[in-house]
Amino acid sequence: MVNYEEKYRNEALNLTIVEPFNGSLTVKKRSPSNIALVKYWGKRHFQIPQNPSLSFTLNKSFTDTEIEYQYKKEKGLSFDFYFEGEKNTNFEERIGKHLSVLKPFFPFIENLHLKITSSNSFPHSSGIASSASAMSAFALCICSIEKKIFDTLQKKKEYFQKASFMARLGSGSAARSVWPGFVLWGETDFVEGASDELAIPLPGKSDKIFSGIRDAILITSPEKKKISSSAGHGLMKDHPFAEARYKQANENIELLIDALKTGNQNEFIRIVENEALTLHSLMMSSNPGFTLMNEKTWKIINEIRYYREKTGRLVAFTLDAGPNVHLLYLETDKDEILKFIEQKLVVFCDNSRWIDDGIAAP
Ligand code: PMV
To answer: Is the dihedral of CA 195, 199, 203, 206 positive or negative?
Structure first.
Protein backbone atom coordinates (compact mmCIF):
# COMPACT_ATOMS: atom_id res chain seq x y z
CA MET A 1 0.00 0.00 0.00
CA VAL A 2 1.25 3.51 -0.81
CA ASN A 3 2.42 5.61 2.13
CA TYR A 4 1.28 9.01 0.85
CA GLU A 5 2.70 11.00 3.73
CA GLU A 6 6.18 9.66 3.00
CA LYS A 7 5.70 10.20 -0.75
CA TYR A 8 4.65 13.84 -0.33
CA ARG A 9 7.42 14.54 2.20
CA ASN A 10 9.96 13.18 -0.30
CA GLU A 11 8.49 15.22 -3.13
CA ALA A 12 8.77 18.31 -0.93
CA LEU A 13 12.58 18.08 -1.12
CA ASN A 14 12.31 19.38 -4.70
CA LEU A 15 9.74 22.05 -3.97
CA THR A 16 11.80 25.06 -2.97
CA ILE A 17 11.88 28.07 -5.23
CA VAL A 18 15.27 28.51 -6.93
CA GLU A 19 14.22 31.03 -9.57
CA PRO A 20 12.41 34.01 -8.05
CA PHE A 21 9.65 35.54 -10.19
CA ASN A 22 8.36 39.07 -10.44
CA GLY A 23 4.82 40.30 -10.05
CA SER A 24 1.85 38.35 -8.80
CA LEU A 25 0.14 35.27 -10.20
CA THR A 26 -3.32 33.92 -9.45
CA VAL A 27 -5.01 30.53 -9.09
CA LYS A 28 -8.74 30.11 -8.68
CA LYS A 29 -10.65 26.97 -7.68
CA ARG A 30 -14.23 26.01 -6.92
CA SER A 31 -15.08 23.06 -4.71
CA PRO A 32 -18.46 21.81 -3.49
CA SER A 33 -19.52 20.47 -0.14
CA ASN A 34 -20.46 16.80 0.22
CA ILE A 35 -22.98 14.80 2.19
CA ALA A 36 -21.85 11.62 3.96
CA LEU A 37 -24.03 8.52 3.68
CA VAL A 38 -21.76 6.49 5.96
CA LYS A 39 -20.43 8.94 8.51
CA TYR A 40 -16.93 9.75 9.66
CA TRP A 41 -17.15 10.32 13.41
CA GLY A 42 -14.04 9.68 15.46
CA LYS A 43 -10.39 10.08 14.51
CA ARG A 44 -6.98 8.99 15.68
CA HIS A 45 -3.44 10.38 15.29
CA PHE A 46 -3.63 13.42 13.08
CA GLN A 47 -6.73 13.44 10.88
CA ILE A 48 -6.85 9.66 10.41
CA PRO A 49 -10.43 8.34 10.49
CA GLN A 50 -11.50 5.57 12.84
CA ASN A 51 -13.72 4.13 10.12
CA PRO A 52 -14.24 4.45 6.38
CA SER A 53 -16.89 6.90 5.16
CA LEU A 54 -18.75 7.31 1.89
CA SER A 55 -20.35 10.47 0.53
CA PHE A 56 -21.55 12.11 -2.61
CA THR A 57 -20.33 15.47 -3.70
CA LEU A 58 -22.85 18.24 -4.22
CA ASN A 59 -23.27 20.63 -7.08
CA LYS A 60 -24.63 23.94 -5.92
CA SER A 61 -23.23 24.30 -2.41
CA PHE A 62 -19.65 25.30 -3.09
CA THR A 63 -16.75 27.56 -2.08
CA ASP A 64 -14.84 29.69 -4.55
CA THR A 65 -11.26 30.42 -3.52
CA GLU A 66 -8.68 32.56 -5.21
CA ILE A 67 -5.04 32.88 -4.19
CA GLU A 68 -2.88 35.66 -5.53
CA TYR A 69 0.76 34.84 -4.80
CA GLN A 70 3.94 36.86 -4.96
CA TYR A 71 7.54 35.87 -4.46
CA LYS A 72 9.28 37.21 -1.35
CA LYS A 73 12.89 36.69 -0.42
CA GLU A 74 12.66 36.44 3.34
CA LYS A 75 11.31 33.13 4.54
CA GLY A 76 8.19 32.80 6.69
CA LEU A 77 4.45 32.27 6.33
CA SER A 78 2.69 35.42 5.20
CA PHE A 79 -0.92 35.82 4.07
CA ASP A 80 -4.07 37.96 4.10
CA PHE A 81 -7.52 36.47 4.15
CA TYR A 82 -10.70 37.99 2.73
CA PHE A 83 -14.06 36.27 3.18
CA GLU A 84 -16.99 37.43 1.02
CA GLY A 85 -15.14 40.61 0.10
CA GLU A 86 -14.02 41.64 3.59
CA LYS A 87 -10.82 41.11 5.49
CA ASN A 88 -11.59 38.41 8.02
CA THR A 89 -9.40 38.04 11.08
CA ASN A 90 -11.64 35.37 12.69
CA PHE A 91 -10.60 32.72 10.18
CA GLU A 92 -6.98 33.87 10.04
CA GLU A 93 -5.87 31.86 13.03
CA ARG A 94 -7.24 28.64 11.54
CA ILE A 95 -5.63 29.34 8.17
CA GLY A 96 -2.31 30.17 9.83
CA LYS A 97 -2.36 26.82 11.66
CA HIS A 98 -3.34 24.98 8.51
CA LEU A 99 -0.50 26.58 6.53
CA SER A 100 1.96 25.46 9.23
CA VAL A 101 0.64 21.91 8.79
CA LEU A 102 1.05 22.18 4.98
CA LYS A 103 4.54 23.70 5.13
CA PRO A 104 6.51 20.41 5.27
CA PHE A 105 4.75 19.30 2.06
CA PHE A 106 4.94 22.65 0.25
CA PRO A 107 8.11 24.37 1.54
CA PHE A 108 7.77 26.99 -1.23
CA ILE A 109 4.86 28.67 0.58
CA GLU A 110 7.44 30.20 2.92
CA ASN A 111 8.74 32.23 -0.01
CA LEU A 112 5.33 33.52 -1.06
CA HIS A 113 2.95 36.12 0.16
CA LEU A 114 -0.59 34.77 -0.30
CA LYS A 115 -3.67 36.90 -0.71
CA ILE A 116 -6.52 34.45 -0.14
CA THR A 117 -10.06 35.40 -1.14
CA SER A 118 -12.96 33.07 -0.48
CA SER A 119 -16.74 33.05 -0.79
CA ASN A 120 -19.54 30.50 -0.47
CA SER A 121 -22.52 29.94 -2.76
CA PHE A 122 -24.70 29.29 0.29
CA PRO A 123 -25.58 31.91 2.88
CA HIS A 124 -23.32 32.08 5.93
CA SER A 125 -26.32 31.83 8.26
CA SER A 126 -27.72 28.68 6.65
CA GLY A 127 -26.23 26.34 9.24
CA ILE A 128 -24.35 24.52 6.47
CA ALA A 129 -20.84 23.49 7.41
CA SER A 130 -18.45 25.06 4.96
CA SER A 131 -15.22 23.44 6.10
CA ALA A 132 -15.40 20.61 3.53
CA SER A 133 -15.81 22.90 0.53
CA ALA A 134 -13.46 25.57 1.92
CA MET A 135 -10.59 23.22 2.81
CA SER A 136 -10.98 21.36 -0.46
CA ALA A 137 -10.95 24.54 -2.58
CA PHE A 138 -7.90 25.74 -0.61
CA ALA A 139 -6.01 22.45 -1.15
CA LEU A 140 -6.79 22.56 -4.88
CA CYS A 141 -5.39 26.11 -5.03
CA ILE A 142 -2.14 25.17 -3.25
CA CYS A 143 -1.66 22.13 -5.52
CA SER A 144 -2.29 24.40 -8.52
CA ILE A 145 0.41 26.80 -7.31
CA GLU A 146 2.81 23.85 -7.03
CA LYS A 147 1.81 22.73 -10.53
CA LYS A 148 2.40 26.20 -12.00
CA ILE A 149 5.74 26.90 -10.35
CA PHE A 150 7.32 23.45 -10.59
CA ASP A 151 5.53 21.86 -13.54
CA THR A 152 4.54 18.91 -11.34
CA LEU A 153 1.18 17.13 -10.80
CA GLN A 154 0.53 16.97 -14.53
CA LYS A 155 -1.54 13.81 -14.29
CA LYS A 156 -5.11 14.48 -13.16
CA LYS A 157 -5.12 11.56 -10.72
CA GLU A 158 -1.88 12.67 -9.06
CA TYR A 159 -3.14 16.24 -8.73
CA PHE A 160 -6.48 15.31 -7.16
CA GLN A 161 -4.96 12.67 -4.88
CA LYS A 162 -2.51 15.17 -3.47
CA ALA A 163 -5.29 17.77 -3.09
CA SER A 164 -7.42 15.19 -1.24
CA PHE A 165 -4.55 14.38 1.14
CA MET A 166 -3.96 18.09 1.86
CA ALA A 167 -7.68 18.85 2.23
CA ARG A 168 -7.92 16.06 4.84
CA LEU A 169 -5.28 17.79 6.94
CA GLY A 170 -7.62 20.81 7.15
CA SER A 171 -10.91 18.96 7.67
CA GLY A 172 -11.41 15.20 7.29
CA SER A 173 -14.59 15.36 5.24
CA ALA A 174 -12.90 17.85 2.86
CA ALA A 175 -10.77 14.96 1.56
CA ARG A 176 -13.91 13.65 -0.17
CA SER A 177 -14.91 16.97 -1.76
CA VAL A 178 -12.13 17.09 -4.35
CA TRP A 179 -13.82 14.32 -6.38
CA PRO A 180 -17.30 14.40 -7.94
CA GLY A 181 -19.82 11.51 -7.66
CA PHE A 182 -19.71 8.88 -4.90
CA VAL A 183 -16.47 9.08 -2.92
CA LEU A 184 -14.82 6.76 -0.40
CA TRP A 185 -12.36 7.78 2.30
CA GLY A 186 -10.79 5.30 4.68
CA GLU A 187 -9.35 1.83 4.46
CA THR A 188 -11.72 -1.04 3.91
CA ASP A 189 -11.06 -4.64 2.85
CA PHE A 190 -13.74 -4.40 0.18
CA VAL A 191 -12.15 -1.77 -2.02
CA GLU A 192 -8.64 -1.95 -3.35
CA GLY A 193 -6.80 1.35 -3.19
CA ALA A 194 -8.99 2.76 -0.40
CA SER A 195 -6.86 4.80 1.98
CA ASP A 196 -7.01 6.52 5.36
CA GLU A 197 -4.78 9.26 3.98
CA LEU A 198 -6.89 10.40 1.04
CA ALA A 199 -10.26 9.83 -0.58
CA ILE A 200 -10.85 8.05 -3.90
CA PRO A 201 -13.80 8.00 -6.31
CA LEU A 202 -15.86 4.89 -5.57
CA PRO A 203 -14.49 2.40 -8.13
CA GLY A 204 -16.81 0.59 -10.54
CA LYS A 205 -20.23 1.61 -11.75
CA SER A 206 -23.13 2.43 -9.45
CA ASP A 207 -26.60 1.45 -10.62
CA LYS A 208 -28.04 4.10 -12.93
CA ILE A 209 -30.96 4.68 -10.57
CA PHE A 210 -28.59 6.51 -8.22
CA SER A 211 -26.70 8.41 -10.92
CA GLY A 212 -28.72 11.61 -10.59
CA ILE A 213 -29.49 11.38 -6.88
CA ARG A 214 -30.71 14.66 -5.43
CA ASP A 215 -30.36 16.33 -2.05
CA ALA A 216 -32.87 18.90 -0.83
CA ILE A 217 -31.19 20.59 2.14
CA LEU A 218 -33.97 21.66 4.48
CA ILE A 219 -32.69 24.41 6.77
CA THR A 220 -34.44 24.15 10.12
CA SER A 221 -32.17 26.55 11.94
CA PRO A 222 -29.71 29.23 10.83
CA GLU A 223 -27.67 28.82 14.00
CA LYS A 224 -24.00 27.97 14.07
CA LYS A 225 -23.10 24.44 15.18
CA LYS A 226 -23.44 23.90 18.96
CA ILE A 227 -20.25 21.87 18.97
CA SER A 228 -17.33 21.97 16.55
CA SER A 229 -16.67 18.75 14.68
CA SER A 230 -13.19 18.46 16.18
CA ALA A 231 -14.73 18.53 19.67
CA GLY A 232 -17.30 15.97 18.44
CA HIS A 233 -14.62 13.63 17.12
CA GLY A 234 -12.82 14.06 20.45
CA LEU A 235 -15.87 12.82 22.35
CA MET A 236 -15.55 9.46 20.59
CA LYS A 237 -12.25 8.80 22.40
CA ASP A 238 -13.87 7.65 25.63
CA HIS A 239 -17.25 6.80 24.17
CA PRO A 240 -18.65 3.55 25.58
CA PHE A 241 -20.05 2.57 22.15
CA ALA A 242 -16.96 3.52 20.10
CA GLU A 243 -15.78 0.03 19.16
CA ALA A 244 -19.27 -1.15 18.25
CA ARG A 245 -19.71 1.97 16.14
CA TYR A 246 -16.52 1.44 14.13
CA LYS A 247 -17.53 -2.16 13.48
CA GLN A 248 -20.99 -1.07 12.35
CA ALA A 249 -19.56 1.58 10.01
CA ASN A 250 -17.33 -1.02 8.35
CA GLU A 251 -20.32 -3.30 7.84
CA ASN A 252 -22.45 -0.43 6.54
CA ILE A 253 -19.77 0.55 4.02
CA GLU A 254 -19.79 -2.93 2.52
CA LEU A 255 -23.59 -3.11 2.45
CA LEU A 256 -24.01 0.39 1.02
CA ILE A 257 -21.48 -0.16 -1.75
CA ASP A 258 -23.35 -3.33 -2.65
CA ALA A 259 -26.71 -1.49 -2.62
CA LEU A 260 -25.30 1.26 -4.84
CA LYS A 261 -23.97 -1.28 -7.34
CA THR A 262 -27.08 -3.46 -7.44
CA GLY A 263 -29.63 -0.64 -7.25
CA ASN A 264 -31.08 -1.99 -3.99
CA GLN A 265 -33.23 0.96 -2.90
CA ASN A 266 -34.54 -0.50 0.35
CA GLU A 267 -31.05 -1.29 1.58
CA PHE A 268 -29.91 2.19 0.56
CA ILE A 269 -32.66 3.80 2.64
CA ARG A 270 -32.11 1.51 5.62
CA ILE A 271 -28.37 2.12 5.81
CA VAL A 272 -28.45 5.86 5.13
CA GLU A 273 -31.08 6.56 7.81
CA ASN A 274 -29.40 4.20 10.25
CA GLU A 275 -26.14 6.11 9.79
CA ALA A 276 -27.77 9.51 10.35
CA LEU A 277 -29.53 8.43 13.54
CA THR A 278 -26.45 6.59 14.78
CA LEU A 279 -24.39 9.77 14.41
CA HIS A 280 -26.89 11.69 16.53
CA SER A 281 -27.24 8.84 19.04
CA LEU A 282 -23.47 8.88 19.51
CA MET A 283 -23.60 12.60 20.21
CA MET A 284 -26.49 12.23 22.64
CA SER A 285 -24.74 9.43 24.53
CA SER A 286 -21.28 11.02 24.72
CA ASN A 287 -19.95 12.71 27.81
CA PRO A 288 -21.07 15.50 27.85
CA GLY A 289 -23.99 14.71 25.58
CA PHE A 290 -25.41 16.93 22.83
CA THR A 291 -28.80 17.08 21.17
CA LEU A 292 -28.32 18.74 17.84
CA MET A 293 -31.72 17.96 16.32
CA ASN A 294 -34.63 20.25 17.02
CA GLU A 295 -38.37 19.61 16.92
CA LYS A 296 -38.54 20.62 13.25
CA THR A 297 -35.89 18.04 12.41
CA TRP A 298 -38.15 15.34 13.92
CA LYS A 299 -41.26 16.63 12.20
CA ILE A 300 -39.52 16.50 8.82
CA ILE A 301 -38.19 12.99 9.49
CA ASN A 302 -41.69 11.80 10.34
CA GLU A 303 -43.16 13.42 7.22
CA ILE A 304 -40.51 11.75 5.06
CA ARG A 305 -41.22 8.33 6.55
CA TYR A 306 -44.96 8.77 6.15
CA TYR A 307 -44.59 9.94 2.53
CA ARG A 308 -42.43 6.92 1.73
CA GLU A 309 -44.95 4.53 3.22
CA LYS A 310 -47.79 6.18 1.32
CA THR A 311 -46.15 6.55 -2.09
CA GLY A 312 -43.44 3.86 -2.17
CA ARG A 313 -41.02 6.42 -3.59
CA LEU A 314 -37.37 6.44 -2.67
CA VAL A 315 -37.07 9.24 -0.18
CA ALA A 316 -34.51 9.03 2.61
CA PHE A 317 -33.18 11.47 5.14
CA THR A 318 -29.68 12.03 6.35
CA LEU A 319 -28.21 14.55 8.79
CA ASP A 320 -24.91 16.29 9.38
CA ALA A 321 -23.78 17.21 12.87
CA GLY A 322 -26.63 19.70 13.08
CA PRO A 323 -30.42 20.09 12.82
CA ASN A 324 -30.80 20.47 9.05
CA VAL A 325 -32.31 17.57 7.13
CA HIS A 326 -30.94 16.34 3.82
CA LEU A 327 -33.80 14.79 1.87
CA LEU A 328 -32.40 12.37 -0.70
CA TYR A 329 -34.53 11.39 -3.68
CA LEU A 330 -34.29 10.22 -7.28
CA GLU A 331 -34.00 12.59 -10.18
CA THR A 332 -36.90 10.81 -11.90
CA ASP A 333 -39.22 11.77 -8.98
CA LYS A 334 -38.19 15.41 -8.99
CA ASP A 335 -41.55 17.00 -9.90
CA GLU A 336 -43.44 14.99 -7.28
CA ILE A 337 -40.85 15.61 -4.58
CA LEU A 338 -40.83 19.35 -5.19
CA LYS A 339 -44.59 19.32 -4.56
CA PHE A 340 -44.05 17.27 -1.39
CA ILE A 341 -41.45 19.76 -0.15
CA GLU A 342 -43.66 22.77 -0.90
CA GLN A 343 -46.79 21.21 0.61
CA LYS A 344 -45.41 19.42 3.67
CA LEU A 345 -41.85 20.39 4.51
CA VAL A 346 -41.28 24.07 3.78
CA VAL A 347 -43.35 25.03 6.84
CA PHE A 348 -40.64 23.53 9.04
CA CYS A 349 -37.81 25.40 7.32
CA ASP A 350 -36.32 28.56 8.77
CA ASN A 351 -37.78 31.42 6.70
CA SER A 352 -38.98 28.71 4.25
CA ARG A 353 -35.37 28.22 3.20
CA TRP A 354 -34.10 25.08 1.53
CA ILE A 355 -31.41 24.37 -1.05
CA ASP A 356 -32.23 22.36 -4.17
CA ASP A 357 -28.98 20.45 -4.61
CA GLY A 358 -27.87 17.11 -6.03
CA ILE A 359 -24.91 14.93 -6.87
CA ALA A 360 -22.08 16.43 -8.93
CA ALA A 361 -21.80 14.06 -11.88
CA PRO A 362 -18.38 12.42 -12.20
O1 PMV B 1 -14.64 16.94 8.47
P2 PMV B 1 -15.11 17.20 9.86
O3 PMV B 1 -14.00 17.08 10.86
O4 PMV B 1 -15.85 18.52 9.94
O5 PMV B 1 -16.15 16.06 10.26
C6 PMV B 1 -17.33 15.83 9.55
C7 PMV B 1 -18.25 14.94 10.28
C8 PMV B 1 -19.62 14.70 9.67
O9 PMV B 1 -19.98 15.73 8.78
C10 PMV B 1 -20.63 14.68 10.80
C11 PMV B 1 -19.69 13.35 8.97
C12 PMV B 1 -19.00 13.24 7.65
O13 PMV B 1 -18.52 12.14 7.35
O14 PMV B 1 -19.00 14.20 6.86
So the answer is: positive
Segments making up each domain of the chain, as ranges: 4-201, 208-358
Alpha carbon dihedral 128, 129, 130, 132, in 10-degree steps, equals -130
CA gap 320, 312 in Å, rounded: 25
Evaluate: CB of 51 within 6 angstroms of ligand 1. no
Q: Is 170 in the pocket of ligand 1 (CB under 6 A)?
A: no
Q: What is the pLDDT of residue 123?
A: 77
Regions of the chain short of the pLDDT cut 70: 125-127, 129
CATH class of 208-358: alpha beta
pTM over 0.85: yes
Q: Per CATH, which fold does 4-201 belong to?
A: Ribosomal Protein S5; domain 2 (3.30.230)
Q: Distance from the CA of 96 to the center of ligand 1, in angstroms?
A: 21
**Quick one: pLDDT at residue 126?**
67
